[in-house]
Specification:
This protein is 23% helix and 27% strand.
């Protein structure tokens, strides 16, 4: 009897192992059949969309798609969205709607712009152009309240510098920056990129614009390389020197240059266009209509005093600040001297404002500038406002940032915006900026530029 029981137990044990092995084999076979595709290719430019498709799932199977990456400071970003496959076991993010997760609805690039940091008040930083932004996409079994088993994975390399674009660090005279030159013989329109006001130097926007057919010089104002760590005033002479350096480049064909800015550098761009010759087109993004924070000088004489801010009206217990609440009113009688005399400018302006910008009252500043130009009989401007967009309008498809630490105020600040609307605004304005510069800078070149190696808008 004991021998019979032992044989039966062995049989049952073997049967259990066989069933488990069969299930594991079937499961492995199922997951190996799942395919995650990034089209038209897994490597693309940072500002290009990618089509995400999944195949090989069961009919109507529910799965979770995830995206994760790390910025150059080591901060991890991630997103997730749950989808139901169609009858053929396929998911296409250009067609299908997310049921839940970091976003809902049909959002082809939602996994990218909805990525969030793993810590509060962290802004996505990708300032160096030579290293790609690497994003891992993956498909997981849908398991509530935990990450299900991975069924497939694909890596998206999002390049910041296109093939053939030349990158040259600049350390000439007083200028510290990086020059980007497109492939081909040219001639190309020239742009001065004032991306940051702080000590860092961001190459992302400049390198991407070079891939679109512009010679771009991005410059630091302080705190970079051997420059002073802090400054008490800004000198237009520095930007005049930068413009002259830019115009001397072999592939530059335009007589003048374009200037692109954002935030504090917006008022610097206004002053450059108003006081310096040869500025054909200026893009102002979410800045101020007055000279702010630091007085502006030219040839050792002060041109404009600084419009200051007052943080006393912020709640003492507030974890984050809203910058637009503590800037002084530039239209107040005691502050009017800080207003930039943009009616002096001969070139064209593109004013870009986010209606939910919490750092500057950008829309109100655009209205001030439009009124001022019209009052002086000028029509050399166009403007665009984006409802639901926040402060940092950048090249598209990067993670949206609701708040981050601000070095000037020494605390986290809110940038504003709703993620979906902000992402859509970035896509639209990025194309508009390129069209604006091509329209108003290329006219001086005299012939069609050599853009055989440059990707279209």
């Amino acid at each position: 009897m004991a021998l019979t029981i032992s044989k039966n137990l062995c049989f049952l044990s073997d049967l259990s192992l066989f069933i488990a092995a069969s299930f594991s084999s079937q499961s492995a076979k199922m997951s190996s059949q799942v395919r995650l595709s990034l089209l038209p290719r897994a490597t693309c430019m940072f500002d290009e969309p990618v089509q995400v498709k999944v195949a090989g799932l069961r009919s109507r199977q529910v799965v979770t798609l995830r995206a994760r990456s790390t910025d150059e400071k080591g901060v991890a970003f991630s997103s997730s969205a749950t989808y139901r496959a169609d009858g053929s076991g396929e998911i296409d993010l250009e067609r299908d709607s997310s049921l839940r997760g970091s976003y809902t609805g049909v959002e082809p690039m939602g996994l990218l712009w909805s990525m969030r940091p793993d810590a509060l008040h962290k802004r996505f930083l990708r300032t160096k152009s030579l290293n790609p932004h690497v994003v891992k996409f993956s498909v997981h079994e849908d398991v509530e309240e935990e990450e299900g088993r991975m069924l497939a994975e694909a890596t998206n390399e999002r390049l910041l510098i296109a093939d053939g674009v030349m990158r040259r660090p600049i350390k000439e005279g007083n200028i510290r920056g990086v020059l980007f030159t497109p492939p081909g013989g040219g001639p190309f329109p020239a742009l001065l990129d004032l991306y940051t006001f702080g000590g860092g130097l961001s190459e992302k926007r400049a390198s991407l614009l070079a891939g679109r057919g512009f010679v771009v010089l991005t410059v630091a104002l302080y705190g970079h390389d051997d420059m002073a760590r802090n400054i008490e005033e800004v000198h237009l002479d520095y930007f005049e020197e930068a413009i002259e350096l830019l115009k001397k480049q072999d592939k530059v064909g335009s007589k003048g240059v374009g200037v692109i800015s954002i935030s504090k550098s917006g008022d610097l761009a206004l002053s450059i266009a108003s006081y310096l010759p040869g500025v054909e087109a200026t893009v102002w993004i979410n800045g101020c209509s007055a000279n702010t924070i630091l007085p502006l000088y030219y040839k050792k004489s002060q041109l404009l005093p600084a419009l200051m801010f007052d943080k006393s009206n912020q709640p003492a217990d507030s974890e984050t600040l809203i910058g637009k609440n503590f800037m002084h009113n530039p239209l107040a009688e005691e502050n009017k001297a800080t207003l930039v005399p943009i009616e002096r400018a001969e070139g064209r302006f593109l004013f870009v404002a986010s209606e939910d910008d919490l750092n500057w009252d950008s829309k109100a500043y655009v209205e001030m500038m439009v009124e001022r130009l019209q009052r002086h009989g000028k029509d050399n401007f166009e403007s665009v406002c984006y409802p639901g967009a926040g402060h940092y309008l950048e090249p598209p498809y990067g993670p949206y940032c609701p708040s981050s630490f601000h070095g000037v105020v020494g605390r986290p600040v809110q940038w504003g915006g709703e993620p979906r609307s902000h992402a859509a605004a970035e896509v639209h304005v990025w194309k508009k900026i390129q069209e604006f510069f091509m329209t108003h800078s290329i006219s001086d070149i005299g012939r069609t530029p050599d853009v055989k190696s440059v990707k279209p808008l």
